[in-house]
C-alpha cells in the first residue's frame, strides 16, 4: 500500500473524502511511490475557508512580525534545502544539482520578500492643497490562489507565495498533481517557521480544484503557471469572476546564433538550455536559429556534445534525467517520429537511449534535428522534452522575423560578439525576456519574470516590483486636520467640485 497525500489547511493535514486519486511516480524507475487525493468541491470549500478565516488577523499582523517569520523560513530552507531537492528529483526526475538550483532560485524570492517593509512604503505629500495632505498606501487583497505546473514543484510556487504572504495575504496553493509532495514539505516548513495556521494552505487536485479557485468569491487573485490553453482558460474564467489574474503559459524559445558568435560557447549553452531538466523548462531553448555560415560548424559542435551526455537517474550523477511521466515520454518520442517523417535531418536520436537507471523509467535521450522548417510540428509545438531543432536562415533579419511571427514570446537569446547587433535584437524582438550570450535569461527576484503574447495572459509579470503590485491594491488618502488654533470652520460651505487652493 502506498501512502496517500491529503490537503493542508489551517496548519494541519485535511483528510479528503474523495474517491478520486492521482498516482505519483518516480520517473527514473517508473514506480508509483504515493497517491494524491484529488479535491472534491467540499474540499475546495474547506481549504479556502481556512485561508479566509486566517486573513483578518494576518493582515493586521505587523510588518515586523510578518517579515521575521519570513526570515525564519529562509533560515530553515537554507538548512534543509537538500531535503526539498531530493523530493523534487524523486517526483519530477530532474538531476539533483538542477533541483538544488531550483530551490536556490525560489529562495531568492523569499529574500526579496524579506524586504517587504521597504517595498510596501507608500508616498505622502504635505499641503497638496491648503491644509490638505495626501498619502498613498498599498493593502493586501485577501485570499490568493496559486496554481502551479509540474516542472518546477518548488520554484514556481515560490515566485508568488513569499510576496503574497509578506504583503499580508493568505494563500491557497494548488500544486501539480504529478509532483505534490514539495508543496506539503513547504507547508510544514512554514509551520516550523511560526506562520500562523491558515496563512499557507495546500489544495491538491485537478480541474475540480482549479475551477473551485477560479469561481470562489473569497479568492481575490489567481497566479497561474502552466500550458497555454489552460492559461488562457484560467485567465478568461478568473477575470469573468472578478479576479485579478496573471496566467503564465507555454513557450517556444529561440536562440539566434550569428556567424561572428563564439560557436563553442553557443554550442555549450544550447546544450545546457536545450537539455537541462530534459527540456522541461518554460525557458528551455528548443529552437536554435543558425544564421548564414554559423550553421554547419554549430550543428557539429552541438551534436558532439549531445552524444557525450549521460542520461539516467538524477540521483546518480547523470547529466540529464527522465521525462516526468510515461505519457510525456511517449509524446516526446512521437514528435521525434513526426520530425523524421516531415523530412528534418535527425542528427542525434534519443529514442532507445540506454539510461543509467534501474527499472522502467521514462527516458528519452538528447535529440538533435537539423534543417527544421517552420511548418514542421517539431518547430510549431512546444514539445517540452530534450529535442533541439536547428532552423537555418540566411540573415539576421530573417531570424528576427521568424521569432516575431511565433505565437509564443517567453524568452529568447542571441549569441554574437557584435554589440550593435545585440542592441538591435533587444530592441526589435517581441519577447518578454532576452538573453545576450546568456541562454536562459530568468530574471533575478528583484526584476519581474514574464513573457509576451501566448506566454502570458494578464498584464502583470511574476515577482519583483510587479509581483508586489499584483498582491496589493492601492489606496489614496486625502486628509485635512484643522490647526487647533483655527478650529470652528465657519464660512466653509461650498457645493462646487473641490478645487485646489
Ligand atoms: P498544465 O497546464 O498541464 O498544468 C498546470 C496546472 O493546471 C496544474 O496545476 C494542473 O493541475 C492544472 N490543470 C491541468 N489541466 C487542467 C484543466 N483542464 N483545467 C484546469 N486546470 C488544469 O501544465 P504542466 O504540464 O503542469 O506544465 C508544463 C507547462 O507549463 C508548459 O507548457 C510550460 O511551458 C509551462 N510553464 C510556463 C512557465 C512560464 O513561466 N511561462 C513556467 C513553467 C512552466
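^ C-alpha cells above, recovered residues below v
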Amino acid at each position: 500500500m502506498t501512502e496517500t497525500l491529503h490537503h493542508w489547511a489551517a496548519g494541519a493535514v485535511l483528510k479528503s473524502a474523495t474517491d478520486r486519486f492521482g498516482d505519483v511516480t518516480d520517473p527514473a524507475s517508473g514506480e508509483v511511490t504515493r497517491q494524491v487525493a484529488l479535491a472534491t468541491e467540499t474540499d475546495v470549500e474547506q481549504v479556502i475557508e481556512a485561508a479566509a478565516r486566517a486573513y483578518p488577523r494576518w493582515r493586521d499582523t505587523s510588518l515586523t512580525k510578518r517579515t521575521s517569520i519570513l526570515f525564519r523560513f529562509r533560515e530553515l530552507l537554507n538548512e534543509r534545502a537538500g531535503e526539498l531537492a531530493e523530493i523534487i528529483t524523486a517526483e519530477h526526475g530532474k538531476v539533483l544539482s538542477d533541483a538544488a538550483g531550483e530551490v536556490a532560485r525560489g529562495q531568492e524570492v523569499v529574500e526579496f520578500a524579506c524586504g517587504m517593509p521597504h517595498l510596501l512604503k507608500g508616498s505622502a505629500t504635505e499641503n497638496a492643497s491648503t491644509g490638505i495632505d495626501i498619502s498613498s498606501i498599498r493593502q493586501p487583497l485577501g485570499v490568493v490562489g496559486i496554481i502551479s505546473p509540474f516542472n518546477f514543484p518548488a520554484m514556481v510556487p515560490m515566485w508568488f507565495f513569499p510576496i503574497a504572504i509578506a504583503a499580508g495575504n493568505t494563500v491557497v496553493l494548488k500544486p501539480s498533481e504529478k509532483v505534490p509532495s514539495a508543496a506539503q514539505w513547504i507547508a510544514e516548513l512554514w509551520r516550523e517557521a511560526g506562520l500562523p495556521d491558515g496563512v499557507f494552505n495546500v489544495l491538491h487536485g485537478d480541474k475540480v480544484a482549479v475551477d473551485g479557485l477560479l469561481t470562489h468569491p473569497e479568492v481575490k487573485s489567481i497566479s497561474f503557471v502552466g500550458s497555454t490553453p489552460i492559461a488562457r482558460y484560467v485567465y478568461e474564467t478568473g477575470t469573468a469572476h472578478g479576479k485579478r489574474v496573471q496566467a503564465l503559459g507555454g513557450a517556444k524559445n529561440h536562440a539566434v546564433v550569428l556567424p561572428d558568435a563564439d560557436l563553442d560557447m553557443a554550442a555549450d549553452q544550447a546544450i545546457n538550455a536545450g537539455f537541462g531538466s530534459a527540456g522541461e523548462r518554460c525557458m528551455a531553448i528548443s529552437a536554435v536559429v543558425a544564421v548564414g555560415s554559423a550553421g554547419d560548424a554549430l550543428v557539429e559542435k552541438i551534436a558532439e556534445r549531445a552524444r557525450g551526455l549521460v542520461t539516467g537517474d538524477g540521483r546518480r550523477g547523470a547529466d540529464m534525467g527522465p521525462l516526468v511521466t510515461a505519457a510525456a515520454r511517449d509524446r516526446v518520442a512521437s514528435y521525434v517520429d513526426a520530425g523524421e517523417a516531415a523530412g528534418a535531418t535527425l542528427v542525434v536520436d534519443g529514442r532507445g537511449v540506454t539510461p543509467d537507471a534501474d527499472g522502467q523509467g521514462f527516458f528519452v535521450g538528447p535529440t538533435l534535428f537539423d534543417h527544421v522548417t517552420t511548418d514542421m510540428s517539431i518547430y510549431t509545438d512546444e514539445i517540452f522534452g530534450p529535442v533541439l531543432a536547428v532552423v537555418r536562415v540566411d540573415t539576421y533579419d530573417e531570424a528576427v522575423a521568424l521569432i516575431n511571427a511565433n505565437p509564443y514570446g517567453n524568452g529568447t537569446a542571441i549569441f554574437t560578439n557584435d554589440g550593435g547587433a545585440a542592441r538591435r535584437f533587444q530592441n526589435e524582438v517581441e519577447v518578454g525576456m532576452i538573453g545576450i550570450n546568456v541562454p536562459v535569461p530568468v530574471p533575478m527576484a528583484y526584476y519581474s519574470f514574464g513573457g509576451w503574447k501566448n506566454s502570458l495572459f494578464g498584464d502583470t509579470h511574476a515577482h519583483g516590483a510587479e509581483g508586489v503590485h499584483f498582491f496589493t491594491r492601492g489606496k489614496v488618502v486625502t486628509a485635512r486636520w484643522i490647526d487647533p488654533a483655527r478650529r470652528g470652520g465657519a464660512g466653509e460651505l461650498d457645493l462646487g467640485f473641490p478645487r485646489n487652493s
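The radius of gyration is 25 Å.
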